[in-house]
Specification:
four-stranded antiparallel beta sheet; about 40% strand; alpha+beta; about 15% helix; about 70 residues
Length: about 70
Amino acid sequence: MGRPDVLDLTDSLERSAMGEPVPPPLDTLCGYVPELRVWRVDGRWVGLGVGQGDRELPIQLLVAIGEEGTI
């Protein structure tokens, strides 16, 4: 699979917080992790990210899979 691309979700989170539209699945993912490591394989993508919703919440490992063209 090689090295992943890095997808920074900061812009998506800021737009979402201002009430602007953010396309799925970025609208959900940006609330959990600040960035994703993304691998593309056979028309799909696999994303891996680590985040913490707030200081008192646990650190989470997030894995997402989707069809190419959705991110």
